[in-house]
Amino acid sequence: MGSLAAVEAQPTPPAVRRRAGDLLLWAVVAAPVAYAGLTPPWPRHAVPLLVGSLALLGLAVAFGRRWPLAALLAVVLGSLVDGNFVFAIPVFSYLAGRRSAGAGRVAAGFAAVAVAGTAVNLGLLGTNPATWFLLASVLLFAGVFPWLLGRLRRQQRALAEAGARHAEAEERERRAAVERVRLRERARIAQDMHDSLGHDLSLIALRAAALELATDLPPAHRAAAGELRASVATATERLHDIIGVLREERSGSLRPAGESVAELVDGARDAGLSVELRSDPAAGDLPPLVAHAVHRVVREALTNAARYAPGAPVTVTVDRAGGEVAVSVVNGPAPNGPLPGPASHGSGLLALRERVRLAGGTLDAGPRGGGFAVAAHLPLTAPAAAADEADRPDGPALPTVAGPGTGRAGGLTSAAGEPDDGLRDGDGTGPADRPGDAARRLREARRRARRSLLVAFGAPAGLALVLALVYYPLATAGAVLDRSGYERLRLGEERDALGLPRRQADPPAGGAPAGCEFYTDGNFPFAEPTWRLCFADGRLVSKEKIAQ
């Protein structure tokens, strides 16, 4: 029952959700076409036409994510064969706005459809202006307007993502500022310790040396003074090491007092890690700073192995030879993959490299034989450059990335074996945002969202006005009878003597009685019929104004 519940609780994969969404979309857009095709009367070739229409909609849905403009044009062309495709045009127009990165191609596609449709309807088919205006309005409000809404929704989503990135950048900057304050305070404390205790210990050592060389003291007293001088020298060296640790980005407080590498490995083995220790007996007596660095390397590497290669065998090797100590931690490939958790940014390995560098050593980390290896070489005596940097008033140079977390991905070496500075996005696509970059992206996203909102509601109104300006002269050319001309008409006059316009207006929706003609007074923007004139035997028998 427990395993069954765990299976049921697993989230649906994104690919399955996409396929289910596409299937639902196809069912919605195909419903009007299928209903019309299955409802009698059935025209000739009804079955092949229905199958072809449903297949076209299926292809539009299937390829709409990759080629949204092509899917939209396919649906528009389908409306030439089956008028029920018009119900799918707003859907695919909206999706084209959501899925298209740029607006140029889709806008060019709408313009091409409008120009081609106008040429075909007015030029080839001789469609009357009212029908052309209706088709143009369908293209505008069923195509352009939903597309603009989709563009607006896309910009709103980009704005939300930019806002989230901006908030994350501000949070990182806040944490970095807090960390800088903490490090400055630690560096100040370290400097105070160096200036006060170091000076006092130096004076004590100087006086002990003077006593050791005094000839008027008994030999036992001079020997005691020598031991005192040696103790002060040892204390001064330990103070130097403590100051170096205090000035690091991370303190060694997580290490239990006096814990050795062997005890660290035993603790990892007790926790379930399959780890083997190969240690040189001479490596147990190391200078404090070097010992701390070796302990830190082993601890970080074991932590990474437990997280990213659980169940893999791990080998820890510590050798001391030639004035340096070499430590390596190698693990095999993960049998079941890494443990679940947030993506790593490599800050643990970066901090580890800084720790090894302060000790005068070098660190190498990267894939090896399907697994992962971390190796460090540390001199038993720190070089002067590292010691001088540890004595800087502001502490050692900080690693590039601040914040918690250890890991291999994005560490010192990428999975491909290339150098990696750890400054990558969570998806590994590029450099991490600086606060200024995030603010700039947020401002740009807000500007695009405002512009999309303006275009989404202003463009249809503007295009409707343009359509009206184009339609009006087409509808009124040669069909306008003004009020004064209407009032001059007399019943009983012959039609040829009335001087009527050369072209009639389209009759109202209710139809036209036999022998009646309709004219408009030029009302804007639709030029609807205003006057009805009826004739019998070529003479005007009635005239009236049509109620609007």
From TrEMBL:
Domain Signal transduction histidine kinase subgroup 3 dimerisation and phosphoacceptor: 185-249
Residues forming coiled coils: 152-186
CDD domains: HATPase_UhpB-NarQ-NarX-like (cd16917)
Keyword tags: ATP-binding, Coiled coil, Kinase, Membrane, Nucleotide-binding, Phosphoprotein, Transferase, Transmembrane, Transmembrane helix, Two-component regulatory system
Gene Ontology molecular function: ATP binding; phosphorelay sensor kinase activity; protein dimerization activity
Start and end residues of each stretch annotated as Disordered: 385-443
Protein EC: 2.7.13.3
Transmembrane segments: 20-38, 45-63, 69-94, 106-124, 130-149, 453-474
Enzyme type, top EC level: transferase
The Histidine kinase/HSP90-like ATPase domain, residue ranges: 293-381
Recorded catalytic activity of this chain's protein: ATP + protein L-histidine = ADP + protein N-phospho-L-histidine
Name listed for the protein in its UniProt record: histidine kinase
Annotated source species: Micromonospora chersina
